[in-house]
Design a protein that fits this description.
This protein is an alpha+beta fold and 78 residues long. The protein has two helices and four strands, in the order E-H-E-E-H-E. A hairpin with a 6-residue loop joins strand 2 and strand 3. The two termini are 17 Å apart. This is Lrp/AsnC family transcriptional regulator.
């Protein structure tokens, strides 16, 4: 499994709805409310054999109320 961090910018007044929808899908290991340009930060483990973009698009990005996302890939450094 490959850890990926995804930040979500939500439509005004929709952050709690988006967070609930993310939790309902039971695919994130951690989900935080954040300050700054984005409203939520999720840590997601994606199967090694999956295409990250397709996997995220099929499992997360179709949630109503998401205006923008920022995905940060991780790499084994040591």
């Amino acid at each position: 499994m490959r850890p990926v961090f995804v930040q979500f910018r939500c439509a005004p007044g929709k952050t709690y709805d988006v967070a609930d929808a993310i939790y309902d899908r039971e695919i994130v290991s951690e989900l935080y409310s954040t300050s700054g340009e984005y409203d939520l930060l999720a840590k997601v483990y994606i199967p090694e054999d999956a295409d990250v973009g397709h996997w995220l698009n099929e499992n997360l990005f179709g949630i109503d109320g998401i205006n923008r996302t920022l995905t940060t890939m991780t790499f084994k450094a040591f």
